[in-house]
Amino acid sequence: MSNPLADMDKPDVIFCIGTNMTECHPVAATRLKRALARGAKMIVADPRRIGLAEIADVHLPLRVGSDVSLLLAMAHVIAREGLVDEGFMAQRTAHGEDFLKHVERYTPEWAAEICECDAQDIEKAALLYGGADRGAIYYTVGITEHICGVDNVQSLCNLALLTGNLGREGTGVNPMRGQNNIQGAGDAGALPNNYPGFQTVTDLAHQEKFHKAYGRKVDLEVGMTKVTALDLCGDGIHAMMINGENTLVTDPDRHHCEHALKSLDCLIVIDIFMTETARVADVVFPATAWAETDGVCTNTERRVQRLRAAVPPPGEAKPDWWIVSRLAQRMGWKGFEFESAKEVFNELCSLSSTYAGLDWDRIDRGEYQWPVPEEGHPGTPRLHEERFENGRGIFKMLEYRDPEETLSEDYPIWLTTGRRLPQYHTRTQTGRAAGIDYLLSEETLEVHPDDIARLGLEDGGWAEMSNPRGCLHVKVRATTKSPKGTVFASFAFEDVPVNVLTGGGYDPVTQTAALKACPVALKPVGPPPALGGAPGPQPGLGRL
C-alpha cells in the first residue's frame, strides 16, 4: 500500500475495484465505512453486487476481464473535463502529454460496449474520482488475477498520476494483501526477479553484493515462477519443497498441477496441517503456527511486526526458518547456521535497503513501516510524498485486450472466483472449527434467477459445471448478487474443486493465473453420490 491503513477513513472519494473488502478484509473495511459516515463518496467496480456495492454511490458491474476499458474511459473523461492535476503531472511525471493524446479516443460509450456498464455511470465515476481533493484507490486480486493483471494495475496508476492522488494523506494506490505476510515474503526475496529489498537479480552490483554475502554467485537472469516450475516437474525439476501453501486447492488447472507434483521424485511439504497437498508429498515437516513462533511479519501497510511465541509447539513441530536452515546444513550449504529468528531477521536488515535502519530489537513494538533506510529513521507510513524512488511517475500507453478464453456457444457463462467471509482461503484452518462450519458448511454456485430459469436449473438443486479442463458438481443458489451470464464460487471446499476449471491463461509479465474470468457450461444434474472409500497412502513425516 502506498498509504497507511490509518488513511482509509480520510479520502473524499474512494475507488474500490476488484476487491470484496467487507468479506476479504472486514476489519480494514470498517475504516471505509467510517469515511462514508463522514461524507465521503465511494465508487465500486465489481461484476457482483458485493457488500461494498450496496453502500456505494456508483456501482460499475463490469464484465469480468474488462477493467482496462473502464479505466481508459475514466481517464478520457478526467482529461476531457479538465480535471487533470497539471502541476503534479509537469513536476513529477513523464509522458503525460502522450497519455492525454492516447486516451482521447476511449470514450465512455466505447468502454460501455466492452465492459457492459452504463456509459453515464462510467462518466459519473470519473467525475467523482477526478474531482476529489483526496481520491484513494483500493484493489485486490480481482484486478491482478487476469492475463492483463499488470495492465490493470498500471491503468490504476495512470489515474492516480493524472489526478495527483499520490504522496498525500487519504490518497494513493493501495493493494490489500491476501494473507498476513505476503508483503513480508516479497520483502525477503521470495520473488523470482528480486533479491531481498526488491533489488533486481539482473543488476551486476546486486549480484556482487549477494555473492559476497552468501558465498555463491547467482546467474544474472530472472528466476522461474511457480507456473514454469510446475510445467517442468519430472522433466528438468525432480524435487520440490512447498512451504505453507495448499497448492492442489489454490492453483489453477488442478489436473495439471496434480500430475506435475506426482511426477516429482521427491515432494517435501512444510505445513501446520495435513493439507490436500501434504497428502501427496513424500515427506511432510510439521511447522509451528503463529502462536507457537518467534518471528517477524510485514503486513499490507508495510508495517514490520514481531511475533512472539505464546505457547510451546506440539510434538516435533519446528519454525519454518529452522526446518529450512537445517535442511540446508544437511545438504552441505554454508551460511545457514542460524540459531534464532533474530539472527535471520538481522541478516535481512543488513542486506535490504528498505530494512537497513531496523533490527530485531527496534521492531519490538511494531511501530515502523518501511522503507527505513538508516538507523534513527522514523519509517515511511506514506510513500511518494516528495518524489518517486525512480525519479518520475511514468504513464503507460495501454490498450484493452480480451481474456485469453472468451465465451462461445459451448461455454456461454462466465465463472469468476473469490472468497467468502466465514471460510478463509482453502479452509486449511477454518475448516477444522465446527463453529465456523455452522456459518458456512458447503460451497454453492451463485446463479442469477434468470439464468436458472433459462438453463433449467433449480435453486437448491445441483448443476454440472464444465469446460475443456474438467467438470464438477455444485449446488445452485439463486441470487441477484451475480449478474446474468456470470456465476461465482469460492475455492474453499475440497469437494467442489473449482480450480479444475480455472487456468485459462497467465499474465505474460508476472505469470499470475487468470482465476477471475473462465468460460463454462452449466446443466442440471442429480445430487452426487455419498462420499466414501478408504484413504490413500499417507506421506512420511519428516524428522530433523
Q: What does this protein structure show overall?
A:
This protein is of the alpha/beta class and 544 residues long. It has four domains: 5-176, Dimethylsulfoxide Reductase, domain 2; 178-223 and 287-374, Rossmann fold (3-Layer(aba) Sandwich); 225-275, no CATH class; 413-531, Barwin-like endoglucanases, CATH 2.40.40. Helix content is 29%, strand content 17%. It has helices spanning 21-24, 26-38, 51-54, 67-80, 86-92, 96-102, 108-115, 119-130, 141-144, 149-163, 182-187, 204-214, 226-231, 247-250, 254-262, 320-330, 341-351, 434-439, 449-455; strands at residues 13-17, 41-45, 58-60, 93-94, 135-139, 173-175, 194-195, 199-200, 239-243, 266-271, 283-286, 295-298, 304-307, 393-394, 413-418, 444-447, 462-467, 470-478, 486-490, 518-525, 540-541. A six-stranded mixed β-sheet has the order 16-18-17-20-15-19. It has a five-stranded parallel β-sheet with strand order 3-2-1-5-6, with helices on both faces. A hairpin with a 2-residue loop joins β17 (462-467) and β18 (470-478). The longest helix has 15 residues, at 149-163. It is globular.
